[in-house]
Amino acid sequence: MVWLSSRWRIALMVAPAIIVFTGLIVYPVIYSAGYSLTDFAGFGDPVFVGLKNYIDLWNDPFFWSSLRNTLIILVVSIVVLVPSSFGLALLLRRRFPGGGALRALVFAPAIIAPILIGLIWVFILDPKIGMLNHFLGWLGLPQPEWIGGNVLTPYSVALVFIWSSVGFAMTIFYAGLQQLPGDVIEASSLDGASGWKQLLYVTVPLMKESFAIASVLLITNVFKIFELVYVLTNGGPVHRSETLVSYMYFITFTNQQYGSGMALAVIITVLGAVVSLAYLLVLRGRKSE
User: Is the four-CA dihedral 213, 214, 215, 219 of positive or negative sign?
Assistant: First the structure.
């Protein structure tokens, strides 16, 4: 390889990654965007219909309710999951008896298949057969419709998502805490910074990259939530508990409106990219302050 310039060596090294990324990511997105402009129903030749599928979604109340549910899950997850997983990482970084077992216990839900997680929580949250409402009834308290209703379902899905993801996010923060420069932490201690001030003015600013990685992965995972909704409520009743992905599955594979399903897939992709980019820009802005 000595006969190649450094520029060509770099190009040859990154070429396989670019080819794989183009084949597995870029091409499917372009393919879906093309079919979103047709009336393709899974058979026959697609007919170009322009923006009709997007206009139909704009006028579809179930699209807006699924968007609302997805945004509720996103906001609740960011507000609860990011600080709680960071707090757990701070706690589990300390050495104490049983710390290793507690780390494994917190991470365990992250390796369970989402289908099984949904089944577990059905037996807890279901209004009729769930343990939670039986316990509330035993105490003489009201028994809310945790899943399947119009109000609490997205919050319940967010709760299950947080439970299943907190170990994964905690691991990112835990790895970030292990990389903190010890001399900076020690210098802040010698300068008399208390534990709380050291956390706010030293640890958190140094963890900006870990916050960005964990948050972007969280955002993209929220826009991919399907199995939890499918098992907990199947989107019902009357699509009131759909998320964007579960509603896309219904349109595409149940109603066999592939063109409309691809249009919704494009919208989900754009929304996920925009929200992730906006969040990163906010973090970068705070970092430069």
Answer: positive
pLDDT digits (tens, 9 = 90+) for 192-231: 667 777 788 888 888 888 888 888 888 888 888 888 888 8
Residue 143 has pLDDT above 70, yes or no: yes
- Nearest CA to 287 out of 214, 208, 207, 215 is that of 208
Integer Rg of the chain from CA: 23
Per-residue pLDDT, 248: 92
Confidence of residue 266 (pLDDT cuts 50, 70, 90): very high
Please identify which residue in the block is written with the tokens 């820009």: 281
What's the rounded Cα separation, in Å, for the pair 180 and 202?
A: 10
Whose tokens are 């897939």? That residue is: 265
Planar angle of CA 106, 86, 170, nearest 5 degrees:
35
Distance CA 41, CA 26 (A): 23
Least confident of 33-42, 101-110, 173-182, 278-287: 278-287
CA–CA distance, 53 with 261 (Å, rounded to integer): 9
